[in-house]
UniProtKB/TrEMBL annotation:
Organism: Pisum sativum (Garden pea)
Molecular-function annotations in GO: FAD binding; oxidoreductase activity
Protein name: FAD-binding PCMH-type domain-containing protein
Ranges where the FAD-binding PCMH-type domain occurs: 1-119
Top-level taxon of origin: Eukaryota
Pfam families: BBE, FAD_binding_4
InterPro entries: BBE, FAD-bd_PCMH, FAD-bd_PCMH-like_sf, FAD-bd_PCMH_sub2, Oxid_FAD_bind_N
SUPFAM superfamilies associated with the record: FAD-binding/transporter-associated domain-like (SSF56176)
Keyword annotations: FAD, Flavoprotein, Glycoprotein, Signal
Family, similarity comment: Belongs to the oxygen-dependent FAD-linked oxidoreductase family.
Length: 398
């Protein structure tokens, strides 16, 4: 797909044509070359491919103001299982709906950190109350991770950090946050005002921006490091109580190597109906939770230990996250929640993970898949299944 990288940006019409093999960084750079006041709502990692990102819904720092990437797609070109090139008109609205499943300055808040010794629990309680409801121009990501304590030698504590992007000036941001999130303790020196394209560089690598990285840096498609990792996901619909947070801290400290990323919803995300796109988790969800473990040790026993820790913490979180179904984000590929062998039970197997990803939209996706790819040509271990793939020849004769 890396040969399909054409990007055409029409600022007058405020439309961009982007081929699926382009990276987010290439898209962001193309926009920045045409305008200093335009952006596109998508992820914070420049090396991520446009096609895969949008196919999972696509979210980033502009989510509360502009929603998911798929909320801003007006047309698409696909090649179907028969080799036909289709656009929105020729593919029809059902398939167009389904493919989503699969000013000039910004105030960027520098990473603001608290530990348990510095009242981090109350800080997280207040973040849950504020982050999904504050001014929709403000996206405040919360990171939680176990670290060595600097106050009690030989012990572990929890660090809570907020990293944010605001579509406005630092002065305006200080007024908003000072009133609604006083525990953040935000000061003018904690903020950097910059163009949107520079905020993309900063969010991905703040040190690179400090060292003078130019917008062209987001065009780099080659990672210079390799790290193993495990990601799992949930959605949180009710604030996690202070008592429950303290139990979670205890479990994180006990495990030692697994952290969380909380991504706030609200704003535009609360306005889009669950059935508008395949990604249904909109109103009613306070934030998306990413459970994260990363390691460099290639030894099998090290990998197993990190995976076990991630699964242990995931199980521990069950009382505090969305239920019926316990939900998941498609792009955080997690084979633990179910895979498909494409045998006679493929519908039942597919429903296990499919409902977690798509909730009530799952059956509509299956119906569309059956219509456009009856032979199940496009498949992977967690793909949408069709009704036919679960049937044998004898079933058809009957």
């Amino acid at each position: 797909m890396f040969n399909l990288r054409t990007i055409n940006v029409d600022i007058q019409k405020e439309v961009a044509y982007v081929q699926t093999g382009a990276t987010l960084g290439e898209l962001y750079y193309a926009i920045s070359q045409k305008s200093k006041v335009h952006a596109f709502p998508a992820g914070v990692c420049p090396t991520v491919g446009v096609g895969g990102h949008i196919g999972c819904g696509g979210y980033g720092t502009l989510i509360r103001k502009y929603g998911l990437s798929i909320d801003n797609i007006v047309d698409a070109e696909i090649v179907d299982a028969k080799g036909r090139l289709l656009n929105r008109k020729s593919m029809g609205e059902d398939l167009f709906w389904a493919i989503g499943g699969g000013s000039a300055s910004f105030g960027v808040v520098l990473s603001y950190t608290k530990t348990l010794e510095e009242n981090a629990t109350d800080f997280v309680v207040q973040w849950q109350q504020v982050a999904p409801t504050i001014d929709i121009r403000l996206f405040m990501r919360l990171l939680l991770q176990p670290i060595a304590s600097t106050t009690v030698k030989g012990t572990t504590t929890i660090k809570a950090s907020v990293v944010a992007v605001f579509l406005g000036s630092a002065a305006e941001l200080l007024g908003i946050v000072g009133k609604e999130f006083p525990l953040l303790g935000l000061k003018k020196e904690d903020c950097l005002e910059m163009s949107w394209i520079n905020s993309v560089i900063w969010y991905n690598d703040a040190e690179a921006l400090k060292a003078g990285a130019k917008p062209e840096s987001v065009l780099d498609r080659h990672l210079n490091w390799v790290r193993s990792g495990k990601r799992k996901s949930d959605y949180v619909q009710k604030p996690i109580s202070k008592d429950a947070l303290e139990l979670i801290w205890k479990k994180m400290i006990e495990l030692g190597n697994v952290g969380f990323v909380f991504n706030p919803y609200g704003g535009k995300m609360a306005e889009v109906l669950p059935e508008a796109t395949p990604i249904p988790y909109r109103a009613g969800n306070l934030f998306k939770l990413q459970l994260s473990a990363s390691w460099k040790d290639p030894a099998p026993n090290a990998t197993l230990e990190y995976l076990n820790q991630a699964n242990h913490l995931y199980s521990f979180m069950e009382p505090y996250v969305a239920k019926n179904p316990r939900s998941a984000y498609l792009c955080y590929r997690d084979v633990d929640i179910g895979t498909n062998s494409f045998g006679k039970a493929s519908y039942e197997e597919g429903k296990v993970y499919g409902v977690k990803f798509f909730n009530n939209n799952f059956d509509r996706l299956v119906k569309i898949k059956t219509a456009v790819d009856p032979d199940n040509f496009f498949r992977n271990e967690q793909s949408i299944i069709n009704y036919y793939s679960a049937l044998t020849v004898n079933d058809w004769i009957c």
